[in-house]
Amino acid sequence: MTVEPATTSERLLSVPPSAAFWIAIALYGCATIAYLLSFVAGKARAGQAARLLLLAGVIAHSVDIGWRGVEHVHPAASVREALGFLAFVAAGGFLAATWRYKVDLAGVVAAPATLATLAVARLSPVGVQQEGLNSLGRIHIMLAVTGVAMFAIATVLSLLYKLEERSLKAKRFDALTFKHSRTPLESLDQLSHRLVLAGFPIFTVAVITGVIWVGQRGTGFGRPEYPFAIASWLAFATLLIMRLVYGWRGRRSANLTLVGFGASVAVLVIYLLRRSL
Amino acid sequence: MTGPLFVVGLSWRTAPVAVRETLAFRDEELAAAVESLRASPDVAEAVLISTCNRVEVYGVARGDADAAAAAVRAMFARQRGADPAVFAPALYAHAGDGAVRHVFQVASALDSLVLGEAQILGQLKHARASAGGAVGPVLGRWLERAFGVAKRVRTETTIARGAANVSSVAVELAVRVFGELGGKGVLVVGAGKMSTLAARHLRNAGVAELVVTNRSPERATKLADDIDGVARPWDRLEDLLVAADVVVSSTGAREPVLTVPLLKKVAKARRWRPLMIIDIAVPRDADPKIGKIEGVYLFDIDDLEKVVAANLAERAKAAEDAHKIVDAEAAQFAQWLHGQRVVPTIRALRDHFTKVADAEAQKVIEQLRRKEATPDQRDEAVRRLATLLVNKLLHQPQVALKEAAPGEAERLAEAAARLHKLDVAAFHDEPDAAPEAAAVVAAVEPGAGAKAGAR
Lengths: 277, 455
Hints:
The structure holds 2 protein chains of 2 kinds. Chain A is mainly alpha-helical. In chain A, 79% of the residues lie in helices and 0% in strands. Chain A has one domain (15-276). In chain B, helix 12 links the parallel strand 8 (246-249) and strand 9 (275-279). By secondary structure, chain B is of the alpha/beta class. Chain B is 58% helix and 12% strand. The chains are: A mainly alpha, B alpha/beta.
């Protein structure tokens, strides 16, 4: 790598966010507040408003990502970009899910999670560009981010499932998670499973491309995040097999989803820490 | 002139069922009862509503509300052949605003045994349809408003939220677990009366299949026929449990039928697909421990009753908001009604003035046509027309004021002053007024003012 492109990429990494980015942040924030209102106060209209706000946020966010693309800042160019992209895919995916399934309540978790991810992405230092970032690396990062975003939505639904199931079993019908959730247990379980089912092949290809990419760079397989990535993959693989073969569902599926997602978050955190320090 | 509105009747609040049933009307008897009321000289419009919780007449009196109420009492005694001594103490009567509010409350199910229930509105609409021509413009508008208020209360408050009976709670819980009930199967274990009711509710909520099983196959077949389901033999209980999604259990067994070992086997065979069990039998059919098995959701009669109680408490809270809506709407309706009472007077007044004005104007026009008039003569004719109109229009009020008895005269004078926004005091304190002007009642003075202005 020559000196000239490096300085160029340094400059590109520090391309400031567009106005659309700040608008997206504001809209995600408003959506979060609206979801909370609809959850705590049970106001259906707040829930509808929240969905529209989130949609507007996703659109603004896509404008920002598009603009950065024009400025030659690829979503996989750095951890910061990748995190922002992850938030975008997760928010968009969640919205798409509310289209067919009554999972609006999950927005209480999804909207603030999107906001937090984006904030972390923004606050994390620019850092240095990923070393040896070739097309394979870009593909790996994009696939990994997309897969994890799908798992993230599945996790939110699993979390909701666990809360709702617990109130139902304990017959606490006045619990907030029960009272204001209009999401049937079966829909939560089914949608979460479908997301894992769709995200798993993407994540699998991401793992494979990752392994090849690390091999190309010759940096060795000793980094601390690699076992977590494998653990995450194993958790989701187990989940799918157990469901297929032994009919595992509900609480057990939800628990495995949480484990798998937790491991992939660990991978991201380690990346982030190393890039930032 | 619209007479006062009235309500006469009894409800679950004032009369036990033994009294209510003496006054209850069947659907086909409603029209005749209302007709016989209309035959009374005291009732202008009327509608009769008869449900298991209330028998009431809403109407518009011709003159006195009390006389109309008496006519209703007489109709009750005549039509039902009931002894007034039995039902009279339970009867209540409201008139005017009280009557309006009462009907609004009834329509909004604020006066119902189960707060916020949905049936009363349909029953009211049915009563209105049965009354036919006995519902005139005022009662028609009154009922129309009542339906509007009911709709507002249902949409703007939470009074109709949450299931208010055990069977609806069962359906609500099933929806919470499964979402859509279409395509789901219900198994009824035991052929008790409660399970029939719950099964019907589930059927109405859209479940695809109803299966009944019972120790006695005859009773199972009978219940299955009743609820449009299929009967299956008792010894296949385990398979039936595996196939079902919702189980409603109400056998008369002394020992639990749905035991932990049985349900563990069933849950595994179902691959832990959710199974909802509603145990409404006492003593209970299900071992409470089966609720701990993965995928099994167990609710007994107490759980359901608790939900009902909580929902009803919520409804009672919402009723406060509903009463505010009723009060506001009743005030608005009172205003409309008030308008209805003066509208005929306003129309007559306008008609009278227009006729006088047209006649006088026609005279002047004819005079002017007959001969060539100079501009001055035309001006004079117009002035004369104005004076003539004032005199003609004021003639009758002047006479009425002068000839009115003491007391009545002051009231009329005050009314005239208010109607025309007159400053009467200014003319009282005018010592220099011309003698004939002072003799004229102050209220007619603006006529003089008009003359002065024309000069």
